[in-house]
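Protocol step 6 of 9: fold each sequence in the batch and record its structure tokens directly after the sequence line. For illustration, a two-sequence batch is reproduced in full.

Sequence one:
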Amino acid sequence: MNVEDRIQALVKLGDFLAAKPPELETAVRKAYAENRWFIPKNSYAAVEAIQKEFLNEQALREWVSHYDLSAVSPLAVGLILAGNIPLVGFHDLLAVFMSGHIAKVKLSDKDSALMTLMIHTLAQINPQTKAYIRIVSRLEDFDAVIATGSDNTARYFETYFGKYPHIIRHNRNSVAVLTGQESRDTLRTLGKDIFSYFGLGCRNVSKLYVPQSYDFQPLLEELHTYNEIILNDKYKNNFDYAFTLYVMNKEFYMNNGCIILHEAESLASRISTLHFGYYEDLDHLYAKLAQKENEIQCVVGANVPDFLPGVLFGQTQTPGLMDYADGVDVMDFLVNLGRENS
């Protein structure tokens, strides 16, 4: 397959998803049975974001125009995919496929139904894709690896795959910087960055930075518009657990019935909890965040400096093709990999 063949196959995949066929509904139901965090609403949201941002013909052509794919010698690239939110590993699969390498895909047990649908549908659209994308139960006979996991599994990956060309990702979190001048609409929009996928993604905001004497009341009120999230049993169990801990430990917290705000240094927060911290000077804060670049996926705010991975309010879960996880250009890695071994 050449680049044009791949683009056309992906555009047709996008058309397939946009039509919401019965096969998609079946996969969404199966995904929920596999993983109760994957409620149908969230799976459909992930599919829609991929269809619009990744499988758009113009976007695909613009993406590949940044790279010279003409001299890539195909190699086997092992993909170990995460399963924290629906289809989270699709961008890596897309990059390997478009680069011309062969993807050996180790699916996450938590996210197999939707990924399998994507791969099988591509094979139906163009049977030649079967030679380029293979689902495997065990990763072997590979030339390079892209693996995503927790801090603990990342250490294992480093030990096991360190001798191969690799990209290994670990835990990251996203933060939001508020100035106190945000409108009510902006605060409500921030809720998308916090609550989407129950806050399980590395692009979800898990910590806020606010100025001294910040008035939290408008924020709590606007975040309460997402209160239907508490109707999910798994989310509510986490909320009740966190609430009980703060009460028993006599720690200060703020609570609007669907999320708990707690002052803490850590960027990572429990499900249903949002950490916050105060700042006195924005420039100093941004410099501090730059020092934590290996821990941060996105910085949400209105005027985030270019040296940080800034994202506008409400847009963390709709990344484009050039928005690479951990800021590592996967396509550049793959293109150079192919050349080095040609």
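Sequence two, same batch, same settings:
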Amino acid sequence: MFTGLSAFPLTPFADDDVDESAFVHLVERLVTAEVDSITALGSTGSYAYLDRSERRRVARLAVRTAGRTPVLVGIGATRTRHVLELADDAQAAGAAGLLLAPVSYQQPTADDVYRLFETVDDHVSVPLVLYDNPGTTHFSFTDDLYRSIAALTNLASIKIPGVPGGHVASAARVQQLRSILPADVAIGVSGDQHAAAGLSAGCDLWYSVLGGTLPQLARSLVEAAEEGADAGRAASTRLQPLWDLFAEHGSLRVTAAIAEHLGLARSSCLPLPLQGLAADARARVTSVVELLELRD
């Protein structure tokens, strides 16, 4: 479960409610593409905008549709009690693992975050993934905090931000993490533009935005990175126009625009108050989709 490609599908909306048929179709595409795991209700899945009942529905749909493909479910919330409730719902739905980010309104301390993971670890019976996403949570993990949380019983993987600087910088970072983490804790790279460098540098898996909507394309990038740094760099460089859009507009809005363009989601598929891209940016996305032939 913690190797290869973990695909993060959108949670499409229609008429201010989860578009269940569109979500099921996205998950079916991931199963057909034989991704290694599916992560529902990650940041790409807009988990923070869904209430408990919506998240329960999405978790059940994901597990039921995925069949034998393992499903991780995001359980981040601002209160520990709510995180535990979401963990219960996800486990009852059959989740193979749980993804936890330290969501907050007030800035948390390192002790706040450790106590959250400790409490959740004591409560759950499936593997737990530490979700380090400082661009969204505005909390940055230190290596000391990584080490402390990684010692918890159920901690199975750490989802790290991508490392700028290519293969050499990524390899140094992975080596540094290997020196402080237990051998059985998988290192997963995120930040799609850094995925190839991270994988070729020794990360165990890629937690992928792109993979949730274009899984075959994401798999090809994984395979290139497995061939070596040069092949991975070439495959990623070909997608630079897409990475540029991600950097300018955010991966969620760009991915939603791609899904809408390809007929995988209805227009305005993000949960309000999130708005889709403006017309000029959407036209650029369409141009990049056609230029790079971004179709599975």
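Proceed to step 7 once all outputs are recorded. Observation for sequence two: The mean pLDDT is 96.
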